[in-house]
Design the sequence.
C-alpha cells in the first residue's frame, strides 16, 4: 500500500509496523514523515536513489 508524506504528516494515515519511505527528491518531507512514523511506533527504512 502506498501513502503520501502529507497523509502521514497531517495524521490522516497512522501507520505502524514496518514502513519503507522512498525519497526520490532529497527534501525534508521524507525525513519529517520518518520522524512522525517513528514517534507513532513504526520501524522505518529509508530508501533513496543516492
Sequence:
Amino acid at each position: 500500500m502506498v501513502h503520501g508524506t502529507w497523509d502521514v504528516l497531517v495524521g490522516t494515515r497512522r501507520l505502524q509496523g514496518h514502513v519503507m519511505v522512498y525519497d526520490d527528491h532529497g527534501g525534508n518531507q521524507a525525513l519529517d514523515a520518518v520522524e512522525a512514523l517513528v514517534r507513532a511506533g513504526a520501524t522505518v527504512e529509508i530508501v533513496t536513489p543516492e
In short: Residues 28-39 form the longest helix (12 residues). Helices lie at 5-10, 28-39. Residues 17-50 form one domain.
